[in-house]
Amino acid sequence: MEERRIKKLLHILKHTEEHLEELIRYIQECGYDPEPYKEIYERLKEENNRLRERLKV
């Protein structure tokens, strides 16, 4: 049960990064400033990497 939860969490972490990358791209394509979202993205990646290290299965 715990392993399944960890796998699901890792899956969600990956997709949150992918979705934020896509959001940044669309913001740029619409001519808006994506910088605040880039900052959030970098912070998200850092936190996700820390969590991934702790969750290594």
- What's the rounded overall pLDDT mean? 93
What level of helicity do the residues show? Answer: over 70%
What Rg is obtained from the alpha carbons, in whole angstroms?
14 Å
List how many beta strands DSSP finds: 0
End-to-end gap: 13 Å
Count of helices?
A: 2
Following the backbone from N to C, one meets helices and strands in this order, namely: HH
Structural class, please?
A: mainly alpha
Describe what is shown at a glance.
This protein is mostly helical and 57 residues long.
Structural overview:
Helices cover 86% and strands 0% of the residues. It is built from two helices and no strands. α1 runs antiparallel to α2 (35-55).
Q: What is the strand and helix layout of this fold?
A:
Elements (H helix, E strand, L loop, with lengths): L1 H28 L5 H21 L2
Helix pairs in contact: 1-2
Q: What would the keywords be for this entry?
A:
2 helices; elongated; mainly alpha; 57 residues
